[in-house]
Amino acid sequence: MTRGYRVQKTRAAFVVINAEGDRVSPFLANELAAERERKRLQDALDARKRAGFRACLCCEASFWSHGIHNRLCDGCRDHATRLGREMAG
Ligand SMILES: [Zn+2]
Q1: Which of 9, 20, 36, 61 is least surrounded by Cβ atoms within 10 Å, i.e. has the fewest?
Q2: What does the domain layout of the chain look like in residue ranges?
């Protein structure tokens, strides 16, 4: 179970609450606005969680990773991209 934000309906509005149940948004008039705010907060949280130094899966060099999708250092990624292109071509 991932910790994250949820949209909660109150009597007259929608709010975004965090994993601890604290309100983290202003009172929003509709669910769409609340969902948009939830996504914005969640994306920011995920970005903080994912970025950081990682060991490259290929050469094990330490590099700055922008996220969990980013597992290869620049050098190895270039190489993999070229390889993929050659295989596709
Ligand atoms: Zn590498």
Answers
A1: 20
A2: 6-50, 52-88
| Percent of the chain at pLDDT exceeding 90 | 65
Bridge partners for 64 per DSSP? 53
CB 6 within 8 A of CB 14: no
Q: What is the pLDDT of residue 2?
A: 56
pTM for the model stands at: 0.56
How many angstroms does the Cα of residue 38 sit away from the middle of ligand 1?
A: 35
Mind giving me the DSSP string for 9-58? E-SS-EEEE-TTS-B-S--BSSHHHHHHHHHHHHHHHHHHHH-EEEE-TT
Hey, what amino acid is at 52? G
- Say how many Å lie between the CA of residue 62 and the centre of ligand 1: 8
Cα 42 to ligand 1 centroid, rounded to whole Å = 30
